[in-house]
Write a structure and sequence with these properties.
By secondary structure, the chain is mainly alpha-helical. It has a domain at 25-51. 74% of the residues lie in helices and 0% in strands. It contains 4 helices and no strands. The chain has helices spanning 3-6, 9-23, 28-52, 55-59. The longest helix is centred in the middle third of the chain and has 25 residues, at 28-52. It is elongated and about 50 Å long. The two termini are 39 Å apart.
């Protein structure tokens, strides 16, 4: 799902305007940088976690053997 499907441009502009009012123009770039680095670290952790799982474990089902 893309952002355009979730919200229109008007809603995005309103959220940005409220963010500027609440946090101020000096803190907003710091918050955005922090969110961007957190997203990057999360994706890196997911990628590392998937790489550490052996291929045979990925194909097994969660149902117990009878």
């Amino acid at each position: 799902m893309q952002i355009a499907e979730i919200a229109s441009l008007d809603v995005i502009l309103i959220v940005i305007a409220v963010g500027l009012i609440v946090f101020g123009s000096s803190k907003l770039p710091k918050i955005a940088r922090g969110l961007g680095s957190a997203k990057s670290e999360f994706e890196k952790g997911i990628k590392d976690g998937q790489a550490s799982v052996p291929a045979e474990d990925k194909n097994q089902t969660d149902t117990p053997a009878n």
